[in-house]
Amino acid sequence: MAKIKTVEYFRLPPRWLFVKIVDEDGNAGWGEASLEGHTQAVEGCLDAYRSRVIGMEADDIEHIWQLLYRFGFYRGGPVLMSALSGIDIALWDLKARKLNVPIYQLLGGKVRDTIKVYAWIGGDRPGDVEIQAKARKAQGFTAVKMNATEDLGWMDSPSALASCVERVKAVKALGLDAGVDFHGRVHKPMAKQLARLLEPHQPMFLEEPLLSENMEGIKEISRLTTAPIALGERLHSRWDFKRFLEAGAVDIAQPDISHCGGISEMRRIATMCEAYDVALAPHCPLGPIALAANIQVDAVSANFAIQEMSLGIHYNAGSQDLSSYTTNPEVWDVKDGYIGLLKGPGLGIEIDEDMVRRLSVDAEAWVSPGFVGPGGEVREW
Is 183 a catalytic residue? Predict the structure, then answer.
């Protein structure tokens, strides 16, 4: 076994943070620690983690995970877990490449050969989505996701919900399945109404009908509708998911592999959800490393349902896209709603390191958008 020699990170457009780990024998692995809108905080955490892991055995992935999670007294949350995610994913990539096998072979072996996927349509202020939905269908997608609404007041006019229903109807008329992301921007008085309005149109799922901090409200809404409730991008460990599973408040789990502790923790979350008959549909509007890492877990998870991918997402407009930073972007080709299982060693993607290093120079940190109401009050984005 070889010890960890270097840990580097690279801030990259459009809003990603890559991690590279090299051991003393020259074996390398790549991870992704992207945390949208909080890049600098994660970089600071990676600086601290780097000093802890250099000199440790690179093969001891679980020991390193436990060390970074438990040492330091304070634990969990988006910043610490995103930094841990980047290191964990890179260590899995390094180990599997050294053994010349895909990561999923180290997780017990695959249970499927293809991965069902969906893509985004619309933006943060969703408008006419029919043209975008047709384009996604032409790309090979059979399912899409869109934001439910623009920003809303705590108690807004019921008429503000009508356009969401019309967008879902338009997409469904094209023969596509449609997930609807409430994005946590819809508060309980409006969310109850919107869930009921959408139910007759059979959305694929209702995502974050309320912010995850309002578990009791989510449980209440889940009792009001037969539409599946999906959430998890703002839950950062198995312990965060635990209370939602025990409450029966979620039907589809959406952990984000760059926020929840990497491959190691997502695998644990997936198997825990299986015990509650909850499906796995990982959140991933991020870069190619995060998506490739998700696919390694998707491949071995019996309860996997569908995978989000960021190809052409509105956040990538005018910048790099999912096919950037790699030399084998053809792995993301979609056919009949599926992509093939990644079969190369490690993550199954090949990073263009020259491009990574070149575009990371003076790269700016992405700033999250925000919404302000007519009275100047801050609204949920």
Answer: yes
